[in-house]
Amino acid sequence: MTNSPTRPTTMRTSVLLKQQELTIEERPVPTVDADEVLVKVAAVGVCGSDVHYYREGRIGDFIVDAPLVLGHELSGTIVGVGVDVDPARIGERVAVEPQRPCRLCRECRAGRYNLCSKMEFYATPPIDGAFCGYVTIQTEFAHAIGDSVSFEAAALLEPLSVAIASVRKAQIVPGSSILIAGAGPIGIITAQTARAFGASEIIVSDLIAAKRERALKFGATRVIDPVAEDPAALNLDVNAFIDASGSARAVDSGIRSVRPAGTVVLVGLGSPEMILPVSHIQNLEITVTGIFRYVDTWPTAIHLVASGQVDLDSLVTGKFDLEHVAEALDSDRNDDSLKSIVYPN
Ligand SMILES: [Zn+2]
Ligand SMILES: [Zn+2]
């Protein structure tokens, strides 16, 4: 491995020991495989999935039954490279795509590496994440960000990638209309992404007035309070519906809001099972699908941010050091909070 001269041998790491119990450990800096780079972590976004692991100790079948390092939305600087990687990469500012697919299985070979059954994804048991000083990643998943993108925005290219994958699935093209349920981080970033993809009508529903107000600042052309008016009763007739709420009621009324042959993309994590209006889906030939992470979204994400079409810096509402990861994970209890960033170094 090629190292920059200043690299230490140990690093501070925030470790989730079990549900609701975090500690700081001094751990060895990871060694780099031939095809990997070593990244000194600059900024890590707090994601809803980190919060689930912290509070409930699990997400569905993924259970925290051994100490786990959280954090999968990250940026940093390359400080070391494996023997097969060009040493000229040392010093590059990068956004990390936090997944290691096997590259060999049927899904990988078909270009759907997000569906690789051997996937190792950061901060998903048993794979450690990035609330620590240094991480390794295969070189092609360390994406150069150039000088105009902040480390905070670069970390948030991960949720932007979720939005890009969703908007692609929803087949948004210039002039499309879209309904988005939920004005949390994913809903807000999806609204901006739909605008960047050319959607002309971007309707966002949320139960909370302050979140609806914020959606109007980030791309929504209209907002709906689903308690005051059921979207399904408004004849919205949109091309696509993206659920970023996980609410069964929102999913039902969203499906009833799309036009014939429209598309529904389920992104929000809520109840694992829901009742769907099947005859409506049949009669209108509506496509209902989900997304699982993303494939090849970072180049698009970097362009959308560097060109000013998507603003991620303004979404940051909290900044924390490694000693305050618990506070960062709890910051979503405040309605004004949108994205918290942890700075491990
Ligand atoms: Zn995330
Ligand atoms: Zn694979």
TrEMBL record:
Q: Which terms are listed as keywords in the entry? A: Metal-binding, Oxidoreductase, Zinc
In its keyword annotation, does this UniProt entry include Metal-binding? yes
Q: Which GO terms describe its molecular function?
A: oxidoreductase activity, acting on the CH-OH group of donors, NAD or NADP as acceptor; zinc ion binding
Report domain Alcohol dehydrogenase-like C-terminal positions: 185-306
Record Pfam families = ADH_N, ADH_zinc_N
Alcohol dehydrogenase-like N-terminal domain mapped to chain residues: 34-145
Answer yes or no on keyword Oxidoreductase.
yes
Q: Give the cofactors, semicolon-separated.
A: Zn(2+)
Concerning PANTHER family, the annotation shows: SORBITOL DEHYDROGENASE (PTHR43161:SF9)
Q: Which family does it belong to?
A: Belongs to the zinc-containing alcohol dehydrogenase family.
Protein name (record): NAD(P)-dependent alcohol dehydrogenase
- What is the originating organism of this protein? Cryobacterium suzukii
